[in-house]
Amino acid sequence: MITIDPYIENGRPMIEGTHTSAQAVLDFLGSGDAAEDLLEASPPLRREDVLTCSQYASRLAGHHVAIEKVS
Question: What DSSP element (H or E) covers 3?
């Protein structure tokens, strides 16, 4: 589960029960490293946590944002 708390890591999305941000997991995977390597390097993480980060990123990518000039 991804949690966001303004008092923890300045509101960065974190994996509940760990000191690992969702961004750290996604950066690790995005650099080409395997999920198995990440799980081995960070014992508190579970495979479900890695999948949750991927699902979180997918939902964020699906949001549409429009920037309009105000003045």
Answer: strand 2-3
Residue 53 counted as domain residue: yes
Which stretches of the chain score pLDDT less than 70?
Answer: none
Structural domain harbouring 31:
2-61
CB 23 within 8 A of CB 12: yes
Q: What is the DSSP letter of 11?
A: G
- Taking each helix axis from N to C terminus, what angle separates 22-30 and 47-61, rounded to the nearest 10 degrees? 90
> Tokens 């390597």 sit at which residue?
37
- The answer to whether the CB of 61 falls within 8 A of the CB of 53 is no
Q: Which amino acid is at 41?
A: A
Answer whether residue 18 is part of any domain. yes
The Cα 45–Cα 11 span in angstroms is: 20
What region does 42 belong to: left with phi over 0, alpha with psi -120 to 50, or beta?
Answer: beta
